Amino acid sequence: MKKLILPLIFALLFTGFSVNTFAIDPDPVVTATATAELVEALTASEEAQLNFGRFTAGTSGGTVVIANTAAGTMNITGTVSIIGGGSPSSAAFNISGHANQEVTITLPADGAVNLTHATTTDVMNVATFSVSDASPLLNASGEATVYVGGTLTVPNTSIARGVYTGTYNVTFAYQ
Amino acid sequence: MKTTILKFFTLSAAIFAFSTISFGQDTSTGTANASANIITPISIVKVTDINFGDLVPSATTAVTVVMDQTGSITSDAQYFLANSSTPRTAASFTISGAAGHAYKINCPTTIALEGPGDDMTLTFDASLAIDGSPLELTGGTQTLNLGGSLALAANQTAGAYSAEFNVTVAYE
């Protein structure tokens, strides 16, 4: 009977040993890291609207040009003449995002934007948009302001008098 | 009668025990072949970590950004900052061992990157099965590359996000 117990003890010992072996030599494992750095989403707001002021077309029309500066100076060509009381202005956009990052600004294509008369179907085309800085650098606070001007083509005297409005898209993206 | 049965039972038990011991003490000689085939232990070494670099979340919608197994951007580039402050890399591991041997890789298929905002889920795109399916160690060395898709919430809080994960290899 004693002899019977002995092999049993041996078996137990062997079991214990084999468990130990597994603990000493585990499957090879390596630890890796996954990382990502999130920057602030880029946002922009229109602080001032582009306004071509108040004018008459004259006999053969011409253009009204608003400078892409803070002042948004109004200039005219052709037979267009400025009438007082208007409030010509460049558009101002405040951009907010990641500090010290360059931003790329995309303006509408030449001739892609029309201003439509308030009550008729008459249109005037905005030929050229321009921006004060097409690739501004956001400051340490992650902000920048740019000014957008443009050239409005005034066809001729036959178009309706009144207010013309339209919308356009400006795209801001991180460089 | 009672006594007889008892004796019978006792006897049979004893014989049974004895017979077991007899088997254990069998001394008859025979020939057997003992052989062992020592194979190269399997190992795994990390070459590169996975890094998505600088990302730009959408201010309005949740987006998923994708980097392939070579570290190239394969989703809309507008959510990746072109001037990333750190280089973008896929994860890469070298697995070495006995040529042609069956083995398996165990690695999570998705992990959560933690940072200042909500966790971001990274779903791996692996060049080899990482779910423990059987593989063959062709040529004794194989490379595991991990790209992946990372889910960004709308306006995901800016900052550094990271997570550690383990990759285990074992012979089958």
How would you explain this protein's 3D organization?
The complex is a heterodimer of chains A (175) and B (172). Chain A has 175 residues and is mostly beta strands. Chain A has a single domain (43-174), classed as Immunoglobulin-like, CATH 2.60.40. Chain A has one helix at 2-24, and strands at 29-38, 43-48, 55-56, 62-66, 74-78, 81-82, 91-96, 103-106, 113-117, 123-131, 143-154, 164-165, 171-174. In chain A, the strands form three sheets. In chain A, strands 2, 4, 5, 7, 9, 10, 11 and 12 form an eight-stranded antiparallel β-sheet that branches. A two-stranded antiparallel sheet of chain A has the order 3-6. In chain A, a hairpin with a 7-residue loop joins strand 4 and strand 5 (74-78). Chain A is elongated. The model of chain A is unreliable at 6-24 (pLDDT under 50). With 172 residues, chain B is mainly beta. The N and C termini of chain B lie far apart (61 Å). Helices cover 13% and strands 38% of the residues of chain B. In chain B, strands 1, 3, 4, 6, 7 and 9 form a six-stranded antiparallel β-sheet that branches. Mean pLDDT of chain B is 86; it is low at 1-24. The longest helix of chain B has 23 residues, at 2-24. Chain B has one helix at residues 2-24, and strands spanning 43-48, 50-55, 63-67, 91-96, 102-106, 110-113, 120-126, 135-136, 141-152, 159-171. Classes of the chains: A mainly beta (175), B mainly beta (172). The interface between A and B is large, with 27 and 56 residues.
